[in-house]
Amino acid sequence: MTPADSLVSPSGPPEEAPLAEPTPPLGYRALVVVVLSPLAFALVFACWTLFAVLGLELRRELALSPLAFAILLAMPLLAGGLASLPAALLARRLGGRRVMLGCLLWICPFLWWIGHADHYPEYLLAGLGLGVGAGALAAGLVHVATLGPARHVGLALGLYGAGMVGAGLGYLLLPLVSQAYGWRLAPLLYLLPVALVAGLLWLFADDAGTPAEAPRRRPSGRLAAGLRRLRDWTLWRLAITYGFFFGAFVGLALWLPGELTARYGLAQQAAALWGLPFPLVVGIGQVVGGALADRHDFRSLRWWVSAFVLACLFLLSYPPFTMQIHGVHGALALHYDAPLWGFELLMGLMGLAMGLGLGSLMRLIHRDHGEDMVLVGGLALTLGGLFAALLPPVFVLGSLWTGLDTAGFMFLYAALVLCMLVMLADHVRGARR
């Protein structure tokens, strides 16, 4: 038994052997789900992170302080986190396609509003509207888990999660549109793709059944039953870890372009291009992690991934410094300042590990909580969205209070340590039981 295996919580279900029986070929319904759902995820995620890419123009146009801009970044994340669990429960009742379609159409007027707004409160309200539309992420998760290929559900969930590369789509396209036609046209760039994907979902996708096929229960009864289920600690075990990785990714994706501009003096377009690899490797890691989790019970992988990400955060937390050592032959001066390529390498390695963790964790949630997948998946996205909303103000306030640009990485390091302590406490509690 390896050291990692000894940390596996015995309170979880036993390891499952891979299924050996032949499986039917991928059907039309599953193929539509696997193709259209990640595309919708990517567009919603790109809209969700819109303010980060337009940060320089917004701060210049509205004369925003760093804290005011951080609050603006946090608004869509806060609303998206609060909308995730209700959207997941609504998707179970009405069908994931219907809820995704409604969320995509809901986003469109707020994109138009961002392109025409003039005052800070208008942008805050528009950001809240975009965040409510991000409930499509939870609805899409229900759609994929319900109608995706049964044998390769991990791969399907990984492909869906890889829609996080939508942040990279914004990094690549919006600066070009902003420079060519002005930044106010950039939000309108998403209107046609969002409407097009909504039309494709309406034409080609379907749901597992009609609302009439679901058990008849009063909404108050369903809500009370869900709240009672949330008192069960086993529903939180994997959701907390997933929430950290999801929230940390979203927070870093929002913060990265501005950090590269401030730390290395890059122009907006150059900073966007240097920030592109991070969401890409996270998306690749999710696909690989989900596919491998179909074949293996990667229950101990969360420990290895957490330890590796912790080491990367420790290195990224070091600010530039100069140290003088008085030796036998005189003073020896040492200077440290991470070069751009070194910063990118650490972010890429950490992003790949985070993607592996996200993909394998969502497959574990589906395996451990098949009947409660909607509840636990919505809970995981809720925790991730709320944690992501906390990060922009914390990054700014941490830098102001400590005077260090790396204070955000220090906070993430401390949060991951706390998350691992919760994992360890869960293991000890299961061992005693």
From TrEMBL:
PANTHER family: HIGH-AFFINITY NITRATE TRANSPORTER 2.3 (PTHR23515). It is a multi-pass membrane protein. Its main location: membrane. Belongs to the major facilitator superfamily. Nitrate/nitrite porter (TC 2.A.1.8) family. It comes from Halomonas maura. It is found in: Membrane. This is NarK. One of its GO terms (cellular component) is membrane. Keywords: Membrane, Nitrate assimilation, Transmembrane, Transmembrane helix. The chain crosses the membrane at residues 30-55, 67-91, 98-117, 123-146, 153-173, 185-205, 235-256, 271-291, 303-321, 341-361, 373-395, 407-425. Pfam families: MFS_1 (PF07690). One of its GO terms (molecular function) is nitrate transmembrane transporter activity. PROSITE patterns: MFS. The keyword Membrane applies. One of its GO terms (biological process) is nitrate assimilation. It comes from the Bacteria. Residues 30-433 form the Major facilitator superfamily (MFS) profile domain.
